[in-house]
Write a structure and sequence with these properties.
The protein is mainly α. The protein is about 80% helix and about 0% strand. The chain is built from seven helices and two strands. It has a two-stranded antiparallel ribbon with strand order 1-2.
Length: about 240
């Protein structure tokens, strides 16, 4: 089974789990756009938790990171619910697809704004830089696909698509909060000969963001190359 088939199989399994919730939402009158809007509001809540944590907590007090991670995953559920509400409720529309894409971008940018605010407020300046690079990569992964498809070429492969990004951010933030509750804020790992620590409790959250910063931009570049190849083949056929 290739990567895309595995991803599709996993997605279908998740749909079977969430379909009872989807049917309930349809029954009480939720439209796909209302579900999408709810996801955006929850992501504003994520940013609010990070910003409040940046303002009222001290560096190393990571409980706000853990709570924000839980809300990231909950908000991420609405990314799947809106499409399923549209399909099962026979309420799909072209504008709904565009509305979903636009609000997804807003949701992601608002979430990263909160993360960057928190990191800068607590002087994790290098990590805040990687969070910003991860945001750039995330936007470019989506943009390269949208631009390629606008030019008539399918372009949706690669790592670090939105579901993977949401799960990685959410789980790493939760893991960071849980790790903090067990080992505290001052846990650090030093390597002999290195004048600074190479790992601390906050790294449970910031290392995955660094990985995301690399992988999202690799995915965007790979999509650009794939689109170039597909466009050249298309031009050769029409020449």
């Amino acid at each position: 089974m290739d990567k895309n088939s595995l991803r599709d199989a996993l997605q279908q399994g998740i749909y079977k789990v969430i379909n009872p919730v989807v049917r309930f939402l349809i029954k009480v009158g939720f439209t796909p756009n209302a579900v999408t809007t709810t996801g955006l509001i929850l992501n504003i809540g994520v940013a609010a938790i990070f910003i409040v944590g940046g303002e009222v907590s001290n560096r190393g007090e990571l409980e706000y990171v853990g709570w924000a991670g839980g809300l990231v995953l909950f908000a991420g559920l609405f990314d799947m619910l809106d499409g399923q509400v549209a399909r099962l409720g026979n309420m799909g529309s072209t504008f709904g697809a565009m509305y979903d894409s636009v609000l997804d971008r807003y949701s992601e940018m608002i979430m990263f704004m909160g993360i960057c605010y928190y990191l800068i407020a607590h002087h994790y300046l290098l990590s805040s830089l990687f969070a910003f690079i991860a945001l750039i990569g995330s936007m470019m992964v989506s943009y390269t696909r949208a631009r390629a498809e606008g030019l008539g070429v399918e372009c949706k492969g690669g790592l670090m698509q939105r579901p993977e990004r949401v799960v990685l951010i959410g789980l790493s933030a939760i893991a960071c909060g849980i790790t903090y509750s067990f080992v505290g804020a001052d846990y650090k790992v030093y390597v002999e000969g290195v004048p600074f620590h190479v790992f601390e409790t906050m790294s449970v959250f910031t290392l995955p963001i660094t990985v995301m910063a690399v992988l999202t931009n690799i995915t965007a570049v790979n999509r650009l190359m794939d689109a170039k190849k597909a466009m050249q083949q298309k031009e050769m056929k029409t020449a």
